[in-house]
Amino acid sequence: MTIGLGRRQQRRTGMQQQPAWLIAFMLALLAAMGGRLAWLQLAQGEQNRLLADENRVRLVPRTPMRGRLLDRRGRVLAGNTLTYNLYLLPRQVDDRAWAALRPRISQLLSLPEASLDERRRHGDNPEGYRIELVGDLTPPQVLRLKEQLPTLNGLEVDQDYRRSYPNGAVGSHVLGYTSPITDEEYRRLHEKGYRIQDRIGRIGIEAVYEPILRGEWGGQQLEVNAAGQVQRVLGEKPSRAGRDLSLTLDLDLQKAADEALQSVAKGAIVVLDPRTGAVLAMASRPAFDPNIFSRGITTAQWNSLNSPQAPLLNRALQGFPPASTFKIVTTAAGIESGKMTAASTLPTVGSFCYAGMCYGDHGSFGTIGFPTALAVSSNSFYYKLGLLVGEPELFRAARRFGYGAHTGIELKDEESDGLLGDAAWKKAVLKEPWTAVDTITSSIGQGAVLVTPLQMARLYAAVANGGKLVTPHLVEGPHVPAPKPMGLKPGTLDALRAGLRQAVTSGTAKVLNDPTLPPVAGKTGTGEDPPRPDHAWFGGYAPADQPQVVIVAFGENSGGYGGTVSAPMVKRVMETFFHRRQANKPAAPR
Known about the structure:
Elements: H1 2-43, H2 45-56, E1 57-62, E2 69-70, E3 76-88, H3 95-109, H4 113-123, E4 131-134, H5 139-148, E5 155-164, H6 172-175, E6 178-180, H7 183-189, E7 199-201, H8 204-208, H9 210-213, E8 218-224, E9 230-237, E10 245-246, H10 251-260, E11 267-272, E12 279-285, H11 291-295, H12 299-305, H13 327-336, E13 345-347, E14 351-354, E15 357-360, E16 367-369, H14 370-376, H15 379-389, H16 391-400, E17 419-420, H17 423-430, H18 436-442, E18 449-450, H19 453-464, E19 468-469, E20 484-485, H20 490-505, E21 521-529, E22 532-542, E23 549-555, H21 562-584
Parallel strand pairs: 2-10
Antiparallel strand pairs: 1-8, 2-3, 3-4, 3-5, 6-7, 8-9, 11-12, 11-23, 13-16, 14-15, 17-18, 19-20, 21-22, 22-23
């Protein structure tokens, strides 16, 4: 009996202790849960609330309209065209549903199923609901889809904007183009509001002013459940359009420059206001149509753009041998150095010999001064002048005119600074000392000297405006420095102006001595590039007494002379500039 009672007492004691253990366990569990809830709701409540909203709310993005590019008169150079696109909503279409949907889309739009598969696969993104399945739908395609859309679950037809360039290839190198953002760019730029569906400016103004032009994405806010199914529309966030940008370009002059360049296979034309540095036109050939990037470039088109002709290269910003146009610099070096005056003369010869070597000239013109030497482009005159002033003064004058440096134009990432191959450059790069031969060839622009058409236009502007170095620019604003006085002697400017005018009236550029034009001043140049054909240059300004416009034309390996190849191109643009002004003058009162 005693033993039985003892066992019952032990069981009763164990049963009495068990609730105490459970209570302790439950209290500990509740304390942990309470602490965790307090941590989640109090310490991290705001962050968790944001995460919950992100899981609950989805944003169907709306593309912002890109800002337009306008010429100086408000005419559209780059705008936007309304288009319709077909979108797939991937959260509503799994692989099984897609297998049934794909052949119907293929039949409606006459597109191969493999193409639709690829677009679905490549369009998938971690941030959005919509995949652009087919872009730029035709009106018949839109009509067919709208009719069938109620039975095409997971598809949506919506409006979008496509970048358009109404003038095609005209001014394409200045304007640039847009194309889809890359994965690497998205990783770098998504914090600035870019999306995986974004398009981004690549070259030209489209690239430089991307932050101004791009606008801000908007979208439709949708509430979804845990399965990702749309429950209701919460609201709309309208997209914000980018800002329009007015350029200094003149569409009429840009078209004239592009047409004038058709006479050569490769080349460039720059039209500049010598008073301010505003770029009125900038053309490069071969050109390209930026619309092909907006519509979706093909492999054949991309291969063509990457051909040896380099259509994407803006030749107005690339360096080439300046040839005899460099004689303007050599003239300035002679007078500015004090070695000669504006009235000094030198004898010329058909063949100039120095240190056992002879250098040809295209004529013997007797003893002449600067104006005649520039007009007839006498090589022997400038051989002697170069040796007289020496290498330091020659290149000092070139740098004063802005050669060997960027011009300050907004397209700085595409602009070459050219080359001034002086004694220091030769020693550092070629490991050779400077010789008299280098001075002789450099004095006529045939040494290690490269100049861009834009740099050359800047030089002519300095002569035209009385010795001020302007900053070429495509957009007016406080970023443009005022023209900077170069401090040239009056005699330097007088000699240059007289010589450039004489080159047109009786020298190598008589094609521009046209009574239908105001007085023109300028200089030709023919640059050797063996074994390829010569380059052809002409740069000038008008009216000669009160210059309003500077035009430089360049034919790359065009053959012929500056006076026969490039001067006619300048004449074509000048006709547009001045004849349009005449046409726009108000009628005289009767």
